[in-house]
Structures are given as structure tokens and as C-alpha cells.
Specification:
Blueprint lengths: L13 H15 L7 H4 L1 H23 L1
């Protein structure tokens, strides 16, 4: 018998993706009048944060 509950694979869109979809939908429906920069800001800021963390980790690893 196969146990399908034993896998720990994570799926789904995540908070940043959901927030971006909500902002895009609100922008396209005309509910918010933000610039596209602010509509896409969850993706932009999470990418910048990820790159910054990777840079810090890289500096820490290669400095030793």
C-alpha cells in the first residue's frame, strides 16, 4: 500500500506571489491607481532581499 502523505514536497504560490496577484488584479480593475513599480513591488523587494542575503552568505563563506 502506498502512503501519499509521507512526501514533504511544498507547493503553492506563497505570500509574495499571492500579494502580487492581488495588486495586479486591483490595478487592472481600476481600484488602485498605483504605478506598476508599486504593484510589482512584492516581487521586486523579495528578489532584492534574496540577492542581498545570498551576497552576505557568499562574502561570509569566501572570506574564511
Amino acid at each position: 500500500m502506498s502512503d501519499n502523505n509521507s512526501s514533504s514536497a511544498s507547493g503553492g504560490i506563497g505570500f509574495v506571489g499571492l500579494l502580487t496577484i492581488v495588486f495586479v488584479a486591483l490595478k487592472l480593475m481600476g481600484i488602485i491607481a498605483w504605478s506598476w513599480f508599486w504593484v510589482l513591488s512584492p516581487i521586486i523587494f523579495s528578489t532584492i532581499l534574496t540577492l542581498f542575503v545570498l551576497l552576505i552568505i557568499g562574502i561570509f563563506i569566501f572570506s574564511n
